[in-house]
Amino acid sequence: MDKLDILAVGAHPDDVEIGMGGTLAKYAFYGYKTGIVNLTKAELSSNGTVEERQNEAVDAANVLGVSKRIQLNFPDRHLLDNRSACIQELVTIIRKYRPRIVFAPDKEDRHPDHGHCTELVKEAIFSAGIKNYFPESNPEAFRPDSLLYFQINGVMKPQIVIDITDYIDKKMEALACFKSQFQLGDNQVKTPLNTGYLDQLKGRERLMGNEVGVEFGEAFRSDKPVLIQKVLGE
Fold it and tell me: Which Pfam families match (predicted)?
């Protein structure tokens, strides 16, 4: 497996697709290698079975041109109870695929699992760069260049907006793969996700785009300043 340029980590299947599906589609189009890691199988979700959700996640990844999808098996809503094991799994993945940029959910998200996911990813990135930490995973330490946070729920005040105008349809197509989550069918529980969520999400991405003068954008934050070598394009 080639090294990955981008590695996006979510607590549940569909987290990454909601937050940055357009960005993944865009960079895959330009030939960059992208990957998704899901920490849990979202077995506590109100709708859909684990098997359905896994099949949907595979279909969505294919739509976005994702090079590698990794499904871990930590228990839903108990990520911090498995802190050490989860960090070690993430360290192994980071050292193996050596991504240039890692993405994780915004820390202020209302869902506790999303914030816990980010806490674990942040610690794993630090630990992956320590030579003597968990050397049996891979003896060669590695630390990505950047960690950026994407939004799932709510609307953040972004530091970075990526233009996804040409890829919004791909993003929505990928999210439509998650029928168990975003379509209200017979014998399903009504949730915020299946009562107009996708329309609201597209409106949010339009709002983010408007902030920087494009039609659709995805928003990101960082703990530290982001270096831009050239303000103007070639």
Answer: PIG-L
